[in-house]
TrEMBL record:
It comes from the Eukaryota. This is DNA topoisomerase (ATP-hydrolyzing). The lineage of its organism: Eukaryota, Metazoa, Chordata, Craniata, Vertebrata. GO terms for biological process: meiotic DNA double-strand break formation; meiotic DNA double-strand break processing; reciprocal meiotic recombination. Residues 198-369 form the Topoisomerase 6 subunit A/Spo11 TOPRIM domain. Belongs to the TOP6A family. Residues 91-151 form the Spo11/DNA topoisomerase VI subunit A N-terminal domain. One of its GO terms (cellular component) is nuclear chromosome. It is found in: Nucleus. The active site is at Y119 (o-(5'-phospho-dna)-tyrosine intermediate). Its cofactor is Mg(2+).
Length: 375
């Protein structure tokens, strides 16, 4: 176990005993200390240390609550990471290394990005994705929100509209501008001020930019628009949840009429299996499906050349979505998805341009929002 002892260095163990920290960080460090103590105890007994990680990717590990979404079950199954098994020894070392980094960050009240951690030891981690996954595994193992581990992720989401807020570093952001500008979604905000009447989640960056160019946030009604540029990162989901908690205004989703778009909307509304342990801070059960609805394609007579046949992969994804536990509480969503299943076609939001170039912002969205065309 010489290699393991070098990872769990004596200097690290000494710091566990002698560090003096703020009470607000004490619980995080205590939980990390408990994990490390278990490893050291096993080593002192000449036993192979083992880590038991909750299975974050298994549907068997989650339950559904209409008020929360997908949340991890208390008795979820676990994956055993053994230090003496060739198949898992490397992952064991990677986990312990990142735990030690997190401990020092929390202890010193400093921060690092996941990319910083990766480049700190590229040979050990092999890829950025490995670090990303393990940080989430550790968050789940410790039962501590990822944002409290002092490990930052680069945000990819954008936000604009009638909104002002204060970033963690004290910077005041005013998203309401006569210019077509958007701001990167940050991890933590406070002092939120807004006159918006609703929030609209936009699946794609291209559609988001089109709404900006057409000054959508001021033309119809004061509003906030946000995009995670496809599958949303945690920061984008945290921002949507924060806005809903503070403003308590309607939240709509504008996604493609295809299985991928529907799944992205479900992530905002119900959460994901992999992040179900943080469901309470990431899901917004009040999200409503504004468009593009499969029924809109027929109602608006979208030209056939703008429609795309469902692929086998699309059909598989659609069948999987229809079996999700939350669909029973959304019969109208289920009807829309069954209509897609029957028609065997999908369409992107941009397909509305086949009717008229400005149809989305001048006719489709204004009518939907005025007359209640959502499900």
């Amino acid at each position: 176990y010489d290699k393991l002892l070098s990872i769990v260095s004596w200097s690290f163990l000494v710091s566990l005993i002698w560090c003096h920290i703020f009470t607000s960080r004490r619980e995080i460090l205590t939980r990390i200390e408990s994990v490390i103590l278990g490893i050291v105890t096993s080593l002192s007994k000449d036993e192979a240390p083992v880590l038991a990680l909750p299975k974050r990717s298994s549907w068997a590990s989650v339950s559904f609550d209409t008020a929360v979404g997908l949340q991890m079950s208390s008795g979820c199954s676990v994956t055993t990471i053994r230090s003496d098994c060739p198949a898992s020894a490397t992952k064991f070392a990677q986990i312990v290394k990142i735990i030690s980094v997190i401990y020092r960050l929390v202890q010193s009240n400093s921060y690092a990005t996941k990319r910083d951690i990766y480049y700190n030891n590229t040979q050990l981690f092999g890829s950025q994705r490995t670090v990303d996954t393990i940080v989430d595994d550790i968050s789940c193992l410790l039962k501590i929100p990822r944002r409290s581990l002092h490990v930052l992720a680069t945000s990819k989401g954008l936000i604009s509209g009638h909104l002002c807020y204060l970033e963690e570093d004290g910077t005041r952001i005013n998203c309401h501008s006569i210019l077509c500008t958007a701001y990167t979604v940050c991890l933590s905000v406070c002092d939120i001020v807004s006159s918006a009447k609703f929030i609209m989640i936009v699946e794609k960056d291209a559609t988001f930019q089109r709404l900006l160019d057409d000054h959508f946030c001021t033309k119809l009604s004061p509003c906030i628009i946000i995009t995670g540029k496809g599958v949303p990162d945690v920061n984008s989901r945290l921002m949507v949840r924060k806005l809903w908690d503070v403003l308590q205004i309607p939240i709509f989703a504008l996604v493609d009429a295809d299985p991928h778009g529907i799944e992205i909307m479900c992530i905002y509304k119900y959460g994901s299996v992999a992040m179900s342990f943080e469901a309470h801070s990431l899901t917004v059960p009040s999200v409503m499906w504004l468009g593009l609805l499969p029924s809109d394609l027929q109602r608006l007579r979208v030209p056939e050349e703008a429609l795309i046949p469902l692929s086998k992969k699309d059909e598989g994804k659609l069948n999987s979505l229809l079996k999700r536990p939350y669909l029973t509480s959304q019969p109208d969503w289920q009807k829309e998805m069954e209509l897609m299943q029957q028609s065997k076609v999908k369409a992107e939001i941009q397909s509305l341009a086949a009717i008229a170039p400005d149809f989305l912002t001048s006719i489709y969205l204004p009518n939907k929002l005025r007359y209640g065309g959502w499900v």
